[in-house]
């Protein structure tokens, strides 16, 4: 009997479904802004990204999970499982294609 | 007996008090985004700006007033009385100095 491997895929909006208001709202929280800034330093694509636990936040694990989810559902970050770790990275290319200059302007402002 | 003229000044954050999270939150609402876009077409400075009633919105006058206030308190717009009319305009220069490229990126994204 074949073994079934459960592939846990998390829901993400398609690039064309990413909405400006939702992205701005996702980034309007200081904790989520801090997550985006931290992930901005971790690169994008295969092998890049960071586990939630690698982003230092002054909130409980469940609150952090909530904030990561808001960012994912808004289309700001991509989350996938690598082994048992949930890895997150910014959707830089998707956001840049959809809203040119926006993410960079926000990350620059957050860093200043 | 001298006449006292009541000068009605509305509270605005000083440029250095404008916070990124608050600006992003103010712009994360479709009605407020529409107001910002409309005011973007009305210029800035003396004689520029638009009365609230000049910005067509699918909400009641009191709801519109609320949204203008959120934008003002966030530092996105300036509101002043000209006669009996409350005139609003974007704080383009203040926002650009504080968060370079941000407002333009948001307005461009909203227009696309």
From TrEMBL, chains A, B:
InterPro entries: ArsR-like_HTH (IPR011991), HTH_ArsR_DNA-bd_dom (IPR001845), WH-like_DNA-bd_sf (IPR036388), WH_DNA-bd_sf (IPR036390). Transmembrane segments: none annotated. Keywords: DNA-binding. This is DNA-binding transcriptional regulator, ArsR family. The keyword Cytoplasm does not apply. It comes from the Bacteria. One of its GO terms (molecular function) is DNA binding. It holds the Pfam family HTH_20. It comes from Streptomyces qinglanensis. Residues 12-110 form the HTH arsR-type domain.
């Amino acid at each position: 009997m074949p073994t079934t491997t459960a592939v846990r895929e998390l829901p993400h909006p398609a690039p064309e479904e990413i909405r400006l208001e939702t992205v701005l709202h996702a980034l309007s929280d200081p904790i989520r802004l801090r997550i985006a800034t931290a992930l901005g330093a971790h690169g994008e694509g295969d092998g890049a990204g960071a586990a939630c636990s690698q982003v230092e936040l002054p909130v409980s694990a469940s609150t952090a999970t909530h904030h990561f989810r808001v960012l994912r559902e808004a289309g700001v970050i991509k989350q996938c499982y690598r082994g048992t770790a949930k890895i997150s990275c910014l959707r830089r290319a998707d956001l840049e294609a959809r809203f040119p200059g926006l993410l960079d302007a926000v990350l620059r402002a957050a860093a200043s």
